[in-house]
Design goal:
By secondary structure, this protein is α/β, with parallel strands linked by helices. The chain has a six-stranded mixed sheet with strand order 5-6-15-14-11-12. The chain has helices at residues 18-28, 53-59, 62-70, 100-112, 122-129, 131-134, 136-141, 165-172, 241-246, 270-273, 278-292, 328-341; strands spanning 45-51, 73-77, 92-96, 117-119, 143-145, 148-151, 155-158, 178-182, 190-193, 206-210, 217-224, 227-234, 250-253, 296-303, 310-318.
C-alpha cells in the first residue's frame, strides 16, 4: 500500500464526515507510477462503534487498531450526545450498549439506512440477554450426529416467591446440585446450591439449571461471522455423591470461568481436555447464526464427565470478550472487510 489511512483514535472522539472519509481514501490510494494517472482510491470501510468504556478498553487494543488501519478500516466513536442520524456515513455500526432508548435510536437509524450493516440487530440480542429464551434455540435444534450430541441442562425459571422454589424444583425433577443464575444476563454471577431449601435464600427472578459434572473444564467457543475459535477455561469442579450428601447451603461465584484461569496449557486428562469435534461446532455455529440472527457471540460448552460426545451449552454471550480470544485482531478485521465485500 502506498500511503497511510486517515484514522481516528478513541481519544479524539470526533464525528466522521465526508471530508475525512475522502481524505482517508486519498491517502489509502496507491501513488502513480511513471507519471501516469493514479488508480482510483480504495474505499475505506467506516465502522462506527458504540461501546461501553470497559469494552473499548478490552477490545480497541493498540495492536488491533494498527492492523485495522493497515487494512483500510476507519473506526469512529459514535457520540451518544448527538443524534445518530447526524453522524457517519457508516458502512458498519458495531455496538454493545443496553437500554430501551439506545435500541430505539439504533432501530430508527437502521430503518432510515438499510444499507448499513448493524452488528447485531437489537431485537436478536434481546433473546440472549434473557436466560429464559437464551438456550431455547439450542434445545429446539437437539443436535445429534456421528460427532456427538449437543443439548442444554434441564432448567427452571423462578420469577417471584422464593418460598415456592423447593416445590417447583421437586416438581420439575431437577437433580442436585443446582446452579442459580440471574434471569437477565447482565452479570456472570452464579450460585451453586447443594440443597433445595437453601435456594429460598436467593432473590428471583432466577434461572435454575442442573449442575452437570464436566471435569472442571469448559470450552469457550467464540464466533465471529463464519470464523470459530475455541479455548479451554477452568470451571467449577465436579461434585461427587459423597460431597453432595455431606454438604448444604448456597455458594456464590463471581463467574464460572475467567481469562486468568486458562486451561489451554494445563496438564489435563486428555479425556477432559480434548476439544469438541470441529465438524460438530461448525454445524452448531451455522445453525445458531441462522436461528439467533447474530454474528458476534460465544457459547460456553461443557462435556459431561465420563462421556466422550455428550455436550451441553450452558450460556450464550453476545459480543463477548474478544480481546481474550487468540488472534482476534486478524479474525475480526477480516470479518469486517468480508461484510463490505459481500454487498
Amino acid at each position: 500500500m502506498g500511503g497511510e489511512v486517515a484514522y481516528l483514535t478513541v481519544a479524539e472522539k470526533e464525528g466522521c464526515d465526508e471530508g475525512k472519509i475522502a481524505a482517508a481514501e486519498r491517502k489509502y490510494s496507491a501513488p502513480s507510477v511513471g507519471g501516469g494517472l493514479a488508480p482510483p482510491p480504495k474505499k475505506v470501510v467506516v465502522v462506527g462503534y458504540a461501546l461501553t468504556s470497559k469494552k473499548v478498553k478490552s477490545f480497541m487494543q493498540p495492536k488491533f487498531e494498527r492492523l485495522a488501519r493497515n487494512k483500510g478500516i476507519l473506526f469512529v466513536a459514535i457520540d451518544q450526545s448527538k443524534p445518530l442520524s447526524e453522524q457517519g456515513p457508516f458502512d458498519i455500526v458495531l455496538h454493545k450498549l443496553s437500554g430501551k432508548e439506545w435500541r430505539r435510536v439504533l432501530e430508527d437509524y437502521w430503518n432510515e439506512h438499510p444499507e448499513v450493516t448493524v452488528l447485531d440487530p437489537p431485537r436478536a440480542i434481546q433473546q440472549v440477554h434473557n436466560r429464559q429464551s437464551m438456550l431455547q434455540d439450542v434445545a429446539d435444534l437437539n443436535l445429534s450426529d456421528r460427532y456427538g450430541k449437543v443439548g442444554v441442562p434441564k432448567q427452571l425459571v423462578i420469577k417471584k416467591d422464593p418460598s415456592s422454589i423447593p416445590g417447583a424444583v421437586s416438581k420439575a425433577g431437577l437433580r442436585l446440585p443446582i446452579v442459580a443464575k440471574p434471569l437477565v444476563a447482565k452479570s456472570h454471577e452464579l450460585s451453586l446450591a447443594y440443597d433445595e431449601f437453601s435456594l429460598q435464600k436467593l432473590e428471583p427472578p432466577l434461572v435454575l439449571q442442573e449442575f452437570i459434572n464436566h471435569g472442571g473444564v469448559l470450552f469457550k467457543v467464540y464466533i465471529v461471522g463464519e470464523a470459530i475459535k475455541v479455548v479451554r477455561r477452568y470451571s467449577l469442579p465436579d461434585v461427587s455423591k459423597c460431597e453432595l450428601s455431606k454438604s448444604a447451603g448456597v455458594y456464590h461465584f463471581p463467574r464460572v470461568s475467567c481469562a486468568a484461569a486458562s486451561a489451554d496449557e494445563a496438564d489435563l486428562d486428555p479425556r477432559v481436555a480434548e476439544l469438541p469435534p470441529r465438524p460438530l461446532l461448525e454445524r452448531l455455529a451455522k445453525e445458531l447464526r441462522r436461528r439467533l440472527g447474530l454474528r458476534l457471540f460465544n457459547l460456553d460448552i461443557i462435556r459431561e464427565h465420563g462421556t466422550r460426545d455428550n455436550y451441553y451449552v450452558i450460556d450464550i454471550n453476545y459480543f463477548p470478550g474478544y480481546g481474550k480470544m487468540p488472534e482476534y485482531e486478524h479474525i475480526f478485521t477480516d470479518f469486517l472487510l468480508s461484510l463490505v465485500e459481500s454487498k
